[in-house]
Specification:
single chain; 0% helix; mainly beta; eight-stranded antiparallel sheet; 13 strands
Length: 179
């Protein structure tokens, strides 16, 4: 389960999600990726749509509906686009990307705010990139702006703003498989 930092109830929706374990598929993204440049600089563009396939009526253990934001699906058709660029040597890579998503109204007349994300990352391969298995150390950073959520056409107070993060990681590549 998970928790939400709200107290009380809103329109009959359970706001305490401690007793909840929503499961099921979320939206399914369908996209096209176009590679514009391959070497030495890589440049690509991606456009797509998230199909509203996820469950939107999950309930908690007391059979109360869970808030729309915490459902596996949103019930909306959401459109996204982005551009990414990368450059690298035999054992290192750097990349940057800009992505945006425009969300439409979905289940229970709720619409998540649109968002824009800027990200950058770097990686260092512990072995040469042409090895059958490559293990890499990675470091990614991003900043993201979320627009205001709308409930029945009215903007929700305190639902927009900025978020940023930094994430170290390990990438394992074996041929076309990346873990």
């Amino acid at each position: 389960g998970f928790r939400e930092a709200h107290a009380g109830h809103m329109e009959g929706m359970a706001m305490d999600l401690e007793r909840s374990s929503p499961d099921g598929f979320g939206a399914i993204p369908v996209f096209a990726h176009f590679t514009i440049l391959r070497a030495p600089v890589k440049l690509g563009v991606r456009i797509g749509v998230e199909l509203p396939t996820g469950e939107v009526n999950e309930k908690n253990d007391e059979r109360e509906k869970i808030g729309v934001k915490h459902q596996p699906g949103s019930g909306s058709w959401d459109f996204f686009a982005g551009v990414a660029a990368g450059y690298g040597g035999r054992r290192w890579q750097v990349q940057a990307a800009a992505t945006t998503q425009i969300n439409t109204r979905g289940a229970r007349e709720f619409e998540l705010g649109d968002w824009v994300r800027l990200s950058a990352g770097a990686g260092w391969d512990f072995v040469e990139a042409d090895s059958p298995v490559v293990v890499s150390a990675t470091l990614d950073a991003w900043i993201e702006w979320h627009g205001r959520d709308r409930d029945h056409g009215r903007g929700e107070e305190h639902s927009s703003g900025w978020i940023s993060g930094v994430a170290p990681g390990v990438r394992i590549s074996a041929g076309v498989l990346i873990f």
